[in-house]
């Protein structure tokens, strides 16, 4: 196994399980904010098309994932260009951005899980998605889908399980 998970499984202060992944980009915070809030930019790395009404209580329409039905979510909180949180099915996603100076930004994705056994599945999925984002911001060809049961996802899923991350949830499309 050559894959190395970049996410961490954790229990938040309120007792909810989550996976968290972080990346640093050589782009100013406003550019990274656009990458995580604009539907056309999200299409390069997010597993579904996400059209966001970017205000607290605003709706989000998720579509285009071949393994999931189209669905809606709701913006829970937003503080441009630093924070966005929204519901997606029974999970919550948080995008937190921190300016590091010199046109660098730290992006942290926290997926608050509805059940612990989804951690390995979701962690592997977000690793693949953020790999697509990493390639996109570096202007490199990712060479394939950013979601689904690719060899990269399979290897990462196995690596998360080997690291002791909770697993066992149904995997859509299988």
Verbal overview:
It is globular, with a radius of gyration of 15 Å. It starts with 7 loop residues before the first strand and ends in a 12-residue tail after the last helix. With 174 residues, it is of the alpha+beta class. Strand 5 (71-79) and strand 6 (83-88) form a beta hairpin. The model has no long low-confidence stretch (mean pLDDT 92). Helix 3 (119-137) crosses helix 4. An eight-stranded antiparallel β-sheet has the order 1-2-8-7-6-5-4-3. It has a single domain, classed as START domain (Alpha-D-Glucose-1,6-Bisphosphate, Chain A, domain 4), CATH 3.30.530. The protein contains four helices and eight strands, in the order ββααββββββαα.
Number of folding domains?
A: 1
Query: Would you list the SSEs in sequence order as H and E?
Result: EEHHEEEEEEHH
**Helical coverage, percent range:** 25-40%
C-alpha termini separation? 21 Å
Task: Summarize the main sheet.
Answer: 8 strands, antiparallel
Structural class: alpha+beta
Assign an overall shape.
globular
Strand order of the largest sheet: 1-2-8-7-6-5-4-3
Rounded radius of gyration (Å): 15 Å
CATH homologous superfamily caption: START domain
According to CATH, what is the topology?
Alpha-D-Glucose-1,6-Bisphosphate, Chain A, domain 4
Strand proportion, as a percent range, falls in 25-35%
For the record, the CATH class is Alpha Beta
**Poorly predicted parts:** none
Chain-averaged pLDDT: 92
**What is the tally of helical segments?**
4
Give the second-level CATH assignment, the architecture: 2-Layer Sandwich
User: How many DSSP E strands?
Assistant: 8
